[in-house]
Amino acid sequence: MEGPAPAHTSSALKAPMLRSRPRKGSSSRRHTGFEKDGKFIFEQLAKVIEEIGAEHIVAVIMDGASANESANKLLEERYPHIFTLHCTAHALDLALEKIGELQFFQSCIDKAKKVVQIITNSHGPHAILKQKSALRVLKPGDTRFYTAYISCARLLKCKSAARQTVVSDGWDTWAKKPANKDRSAVAKTIILDEDFWLAVKLFCKLLKPMVRLMRLVDSNMPSMGKVYPMCAQIEEHIKAVGLDDNVQESVSKIFRERWDKMHSPLHAAAYMLEPQFRNAAFGREVKTDFRKVAKKMMPDTYVTAHTQFYSYTNNEGVFGDPDLMSMTEDGHNNQIPTYQFWNQEVLARIAQRVTALVSSAGACERNWSTYDFIHSKKRNRLHPDRANDLVFVFTNSRLIQKFKEPERFAEWVQEIESDDENMDEEEFEEEEDDN
Predict the structure, then answer these.
(1) Residue 371, domain member (yes or no)
(2) What is the pTM assigned to this prediction?
(3) 244-278: per-residue pLDDT in tens?
(4) At a CB cut-off of 8 Å and minimum separation 6, what does 85 contact?
(5) Residue 50 belongs to domain spanning
């Protein structure tokens, strides 16, 4: 996607944008009437790869559908240097969904959904809750299971307000109406049940690091190097969260199965090449994966790359400068992306390409959402070229607005980052202590 033009040419932006074509590999094609099997998907991907240039492609990321699996095998046969891996966000969402289906959590999730539904669909309770709390309860979405976590986390923050709501005079007045009698009783019973809130708290505490990882990988930011260590932390978190042995075993099994499914040598290689993790105790599996990546990407200079890697892990030369190395750590005031940090000859050619990778197909899904916004059921006669142009204009106009009004977008990002899924342990404890 082309970036926004300088400010002094903003009055002439629309004309060149309308004439511009989307960059290679990002256009849509009409595929109506074709069977979407592995061979078909492979052929379409191969066209895009050839259009961009196979030498410029490091990895192809798709979800774990059987047709995509078949396409991945064909891609690896034709392009041996290209990695194929599963979408991390998709795999994590499936793991969250499986965990939510466990009987231990299913009950509290269903009850939380019931409470949210009754409050948000009823004018009286909704108005009373607004008087008691500045926060609003949130309905879970349909496309991502982690929205159930967001809904539960927000409901947990509204615990005190919800309890005050169901014991208020306004609630009693609303509940006396025959149409509201049954659902008011259901909601009141659930909200006043302390065991329900303990179950919701445990559910949110368990899923918190998984949702945090999912939000990271579902963005457009490079995240390949963060997946491996965060998954290791999640496995330890599952053991320490305080679940019953049988539930803990089930949760660990679900997460391990999904991690095995989405794991790629690229995760381990990017992890090792993240400067903030350079002093970690890398296991044999991680080192083996790094060698696989180095041999696959740089078969002729693999030995040189491996030698330079030891200089990196032993803090030799520029890698021994603590001030410089600290600039790659999360939270540094002058933090620089890892892929911009590297400039160490052969090893840098691997590091820059690996650490700059995203680990999910989230950007593509957002692109589909934009297409769906423009090419709807009512407006379905657009030619693909016209749809491409409209998506191009829509996306670039948002980028221009972002650069023109950075304060507004900064506030929006801050609001997203401070949402309920980022609750820390203190906030959970405070909510319990207040009630």
Answers:
(1) no
(2) 0.75
(3) 999 999 999 999 999 998 899 999 989 988 877 87
(4) 59, 60, 61, 262, 264, 266, 359
(5) 34-86
